[in-house]
Amino acid sequence: MAQPGIREALYLGGVTLTRGPSSVQPTWLKAQTRDRARDGSLYVDSLQPVAGYPVIMAKLDLSRAWDSLCTADITALNSLISYGGPIDVCFWRYVTEAFYVASGTALGGSLLRRNALTTVTPLPPGAAANYPVLPVRGSGASFTATLGTPDATTGVTPWTSAVTSAGETATITYAPVYRMYVAE
Q1: What is the H or E stretch that residue 117 is in?
Q2: Dist. CA 118–CA 122, nearest whole Å
């Protein structure tokens, strides 16, 4: 399994950059509100627009900085800036998405992003061993999840399993490819 931090070259818009950034600052924006009532009760509202989507929807704002760049990376970045997006971005860090699955139904749902192992080409050496898809049941037991074909427009990736839910929250941990827009 991969160690914390970035161990692979950054993948931006179909290009694997030669030099890594000096800093990567991810900020997660969750579609969730938490409000306290006068009596101290906590009310939590989460957006779940479609059945089978994760329990908490989140959007990523990603900032990167470089101390120095080589000519090939400058050319690639200038091209991406001129294009604006959307572009594919993979910085090889795991995310975990949680899915509540009702009792008696097969475990399954929709990952919000594409799996890097099936999207990034060519893959960095050892990527398959370092970034496997890790599905876990609510009991903590692992299971086999089958990823479907991502939607061409949204990148949402369906997943299924032959395992029947006991009314539990299953998690899928994977290295995603984000679809993002460029801001200078």
Answers
A1: helix 116-119
A2: 10
Which pLDDT does position 26 carry in this prediction? 75
Q: What is the DSSP string of 53-85?
A: S-SS-EEEEEEEE-S---HHHHHHHHHHHHH--
- Which pair of tokens denotes residue 173? 């941990």
CA angle, 52 as apex, 138 and 152 as ends, to 5°? 125
pTM of the entire predicted model: 0.78
Give per-residue pLDDT as tens, 10-35. Answer: 888 888 888 777 777 777 777 667 77
- Would you state the structure tokens that stand for residue 27, as one six-digit string? 């900020």
Name the percent of the chain in helix, strand, coil, to the closest 5: 10, 40, 50
Give me the residue spans of the domains in the chain: 11-180
